[in-house]
Design goal:
By secondary structure, the protein is α/β, with parallel strands linked by helices. The chain is 26% helix and 24% strand. The protein has helices at 14-26, 44-53, 64-67, 70-81, 98-104, 117-131, 174-200, 204-207, 298-301; strands spanning 5-8, 31-32, 57-62, 86-90, 110-111, 235-236, 241-245, 252-264, 277-288, 294-296, 302-306, 311-315, 330-332, 337-347, 352-358, 367-371. A 9-stranded mixed beta sheet has the order 6-16-15-11-12-14-9-8-7.
């Protein structure tokens, strides 16, 4: 088995699916996700079936899109037929359709509807470890991106076991429950202290609070991002570097958007823009500014926004005339850098306004925006 987890998702939820994949793999949980892991020249459907059969757990990105996707339904059917547990990760407040409810009604549910998404992703890591039987080993596993403790196993939200799992209930060790109680007491005392201090200074602290970063962020749900405004938005011009921080504060990278080729053409022999659209390529340089190895899929981190505020995710194109595209996964030691293109498919009439970039598959709060020159 070359992977632990199969990530089942609708193509419309690619951004959050990639974020899940990135977070799990940073915690050394091997994932299989389409289209990244479908080898060129192989049968797509066969690759999916083999990947499901070779996994120990399926994480379902449950959304309105996946709820109505016939492909997702087939993948879940195959998962159940192989007796593989299913862990639904709900990102939309929707009720399962009858065809999906039949298969996942008895499964654990992890809700990730309310922000921040980072908290839900770390909860997912702990739950996946627990279901894979790695709770005892989690304290010895180091994050590949920083020398910080790996997240502790997190209790699941219901007392049910996932579909296809054993009937024995999972119990957390007693020391964990005592630690959780102590943490809750500390948080309560901290909140009381903040309230008292705020009352003593007339509430100035509360009224003057501002966000640490006004950078535009790429939404996992695909909503239109805000336009950068002012220095706090972490805005830059072509050729200027912005040092970005990931979900883990120890992960930092200096990112520079260096060139835009609009339009460009695919040279892989299989890719072409959708009708009425064109390919636009953006060259980006990423330098590891941290102290630990940094691994990322750059195409998952970038997003293009046009003059009307509409956002576009990258397209999977193996090669373009503009120059070499980034590999699926880029791993950099401290001080190393890599340069490559990411490709977007945008309407012919659209005018590209700026490019956004955020670490950890675009879900990190810290992001940069590079203004693009008018054509």
């Amino acid at each position: 088995m070359n992977h632990d987890v199969f990530i089942c998702h609708s193509s419309k939820d690619r951004t959050i699916a990639n974020a899940i994949c990135s977070t799990l793999e940073q915690n050394r949980i091997r994932c299989w996700i389409a289209p990244r892991d479908v080898l060129p020249g192989t049968d797509y459907g066969q690759s999916i079936i083999e990947a499901i059969a070779g996994s120990a757990l399926t994480v379902l990105v449950f959304s309105d899109s996946s709820n109505h996707s016939p492909h997702v339904k087939r993948e879940i059917e195959r998962t159940v037929s192989h007796g593989i547990p299913i862990l639904p990760f709900r990102v939309d407040d929707v009720i399962p359709s009858p065809s999906l409810e039949y298969f996942i009604s008895d499964a654990h549910w992890l809700d990730a509807i309310t922000p921040p998404m980072e908290q839900h992703l770390l909860h997912l890591v702990g739950t996946v470890r627990l279901l894979l039987g790695r709770a005892d080993a989690s304290s010895t596993v180091e994050s590949p991106t920083a020398d910080v403790p790996a997240p502790l196993p997190v209790p699941v939200t219901t007392g049910q076991l996932p579909v296809g799992s054993a009937s024995t209930a999972v119990r957390l060790p007693s020391w964990w429950r005592w630690a959780a109680l102590a943490a809750a007491i500390i948080v309560t005392l901290a909140v009381v202290g903040v309230l008292v201090l705020g009352r003593n200074d007339g509430g100035a602290g509360a009224s003057g609070a501002t966000s640490s970063s006004g950078a535009p962020t790429s939404s996992a749900s695909g909503t239109t991002p805000s336009t950068p405004d002012g220095p706090s938005a972490r805005a830059a011009q072509l050729g200027q570097a912005i040092t970005l921080t990931g979900i883990d504060p120890a992960t930092t990278a200096a990112v520079t958007v260096t060139k835009v080729v609009d339009p460009t053409t695919a040279t892989d022999g299989i890719s072409s823009p959708s009708p009425g659209s064109r390919f636009l390529a953006v060259e980006i340089t990423i330098k590891n500014a941290g102290t630990a190895a940094y691994e990322e899929t750059p195409a998952n981190c970038a997003r293009l926004v046009d003059g009307s505020g509409r956002g576009y995710d990258t397209e999977t194109v193996l090669s373009v005339a503009a120059g070499p595209v980034f590999d699926t996964s880029v791993r950099l030691r401290p001080g190393e850098q890599a340069t490559g293109y990411v490709v977007f498919d945008i309407p012919t009439s659209a005018e590209a306004a700026y490019v956004q970039f955020a670490l950890d598959s675009g879900v990190a709060d810290d992001s940069g925006a590079w203004a693009l020159p008018a054509p």
